[in-house]
Amino acid sequence: MKIALIAHDKKKEALITFAEEYKDTFKLHDLYATGTTGKRLMEETGLKVHRFKSGPLGGDQEIGSMVANGNIDIIIFFRDPLTAQPHEPDVSALLRLSDVYDVPLATNEGTASAVMHYLNQLDRE
Ligand SMILES: O=C(CO)COP(=O)(O)O
Question: What CATH number does domain 2-124 carry, 3.40.1440.10, 2.60.120.10, 3.30.870.10, 3.40.50.1380?
Answer without folding.
Answer: 3.40.50.1380
